[in-house]
Amino acid sequence: MSKGCKGCPSASASGGCSSGHDPKSCGDKPVDEKIANTLSRIKHKIVVLSGKGGVGKSTVSANIAMALALAGKKVGLLDVDIHGPSIPRLLSLQDSKPHIEPDHMEPVPYSHNLWVMSLGFLIPDKETAVIWRGPMKLGLIKQFVRDVTWGDLDYLVTDCPPGTGDEPLAALQTLGQEAKAVIVTTPQGVAVDDVRRSVTFCNQMGNEVLGIVENMSGFVCPNCNTTHDIFNSGGGEKLAREMGVRFLGRIPMDPEVVRSGDEGFALLKVQSESPTAQAIKKIVEPILALG
What gap in Å lies between CA 61 and CA 70, rounded to an integer? Predict the structure, then answer.
């Protein structure tokens, strides 16, 4: 990517600008002081990405945020999956609304140290389709950083939609190169192949990949709590070695994860000693080690 294009909303991860003009004419965009002030009060920015849909990325995002909060950290969870915001449902907050003033919005509290913001709180009902082009998405994501009163946070966890399109691009551009990525995959080859593109995307944007998570890796028997492989496993770890990034760990396929998402209860609280909860805690250790 041309240095001049890096701050341009039309910039693409492949190296050019979709605006069609000379990349050199992009120049450095003026610093949004309100965004800069918000980010200065957030110690660590974590962006959760996936190469394709259906890998459980939002569930992983919610559980990472919850695990950090249970470790005593002040955490914000930002859902920028504009066309499919699922974080409110996963946390049983779908009937909540943020407090909105002319110049700011209050995030929805999940607990005393975990706050959430999502477009899902703002659309009138679950049948409403969001039909927006790129500039509107970029504007909303910036607004969710600029105008939401996040306050002093240890971590802001941002749940992005799959792929390397407008929302992940806007999130990384807005949060800056200090943001670190966690990339979620499943064991199947087609999902692992897409992770390569996500790693390349982060490299081209100048953002560190904190690590890869292999989700739905094995099945936890509800009777004996033993994990059994039902797909090939190890693809995420192999790819992490190939691409020189950390492998954060595997999360098994667990019926209780499905139930916790449907019913909106915190698996890490209710079943803190389950194999899935232990896997999530291990994955969060390197994130907590950031300080």
Answer: 14
Phi-psi region of 72 (alpha: psi -120 to 50; beta: other; left: phi over 0): left
Is the model's pTM score more than 0.90?
Answer: no
**Mind listing the pLDDT tens digit of every residue in the chain (291 residues)?**
444 454 454 454 444 454 444 433 443 455 699 999 999 999 999 999 998 888 889 999 999 999 999 999 999 999 999 988 999 999 999 999 999 999 999 999 999 999 999 999 998 777 777 777 778 999 999 999 999 999 999 999 999 999 999 999 999 999 999 999 999 998 877 777 888 999 999 999 999 999 999 998 777 677 777 776 766 667 888 889 999 999 999 998 887 887 887 887 778 877 888 888 999 999 999 999 998
Cite the beta strand spans of 75-194 per DSSP E. Answer: 75-79, 99-101, 104-106, 108-111, 114-118, 153-159, 180-185
The three-state secondary structure class of 274 is coil
Whole-number Å distance between alpha carbons of 120 and 128: 10
Two structure tokens written together for 32: 């949004």
108 - beta bridge partners? Answer: 116
Distance CA 52, CA 135 (A): 22
Q: What angle do CA 12, 168, 128 make, to 5 degrees?
A: 115
CATH class name, domain 33-288: alpha beta
Q: Which residue has the tokens 């800056």?
A: 176
In terms of phi and psi (left: phi > 0; alpha: psi -120 to 50; beta: otherwise), the region of 218 is left
* Three-state SS at 107: coil
CA 109 to centroid of chain Cα atoms: 18
CA–CA distances in Å: residue 268 to residues 55, 62, 71, 261 = 20, 11, 11, 12
Strands 209-220 and 227-228, how do they pair? antiparallel
DSSP letter, residue 151: -
List of residues 6+ apart from 237 with CB closer than 8 A? 212, 214, 247, 250
